[in-house]
Amino acid sequence: xxxxxxxxxxxxxxxxxxxxxxxxxxxxxxxxxxxxxxxxxxxxxxxxxxxxxxxxxxxxxxxxxxxxxxxxxxxxxxxxxxxxxxxxxxxxxxxxxxxxxxxxxxxxxxxxxxxxxxxxxxxxxxxxxxxxxxxxxxxxxxxxxxxxxxxxxxxxxxxxxxxxxxxxxxxxxxxxxxxxxxxxxxxxxxxxxxxxxxxxxxxxx
Length: 205
Prior knowledge:
Blueprint: H1 12-15, H2 21-37, H3 46-59, H4 74-81, H5 89-104, H6 108-111, E1 130-134, E2 140-146, E3 157-162, H7 170-180, E4 192-193, E5 198-199
Antiparallel strand pairs: 1-2, 2-3, 4-5
């Protein structure tokens, strides 16, 4: 494969009026990685690239900058718990969904559906998709099998979550959800018993 230089389509300075400093840093890192992966020469030194990105960051528009937010931590989950009645079907499903996604560190769209009508058992996680396995230290952990994701549309994907102490324990909360919402194993993981119709927990776009 040729090792001749391959210039980027444009420099970070040309993009600085439209993107944030962090976005430009990621863009530059991606371009560098492409060069290394394809055995192309990377001619920009570390110091020069840093100088370019620092300048581009200083020129970034105010609209691309957002103030720092407080971290979403277990204490916040615990405070939400205080305002819910986990004996109610909807509350039990919502809190189970929230704690599971928090401790599994997954995107919202992996564990939810956009609308009840869009639920597809071949794509979305089911109640029977939950199992218990052991980690490399012999500790029990929960495994969630997702039939289809954006990165694995056919091969499926598994994600793991461990038991925690306190009211945010995802295992205890999930078991409570299963007890309150006694539905089919072929239902969506966070289906809840609506007075009129079985509902799947939806996400807001």
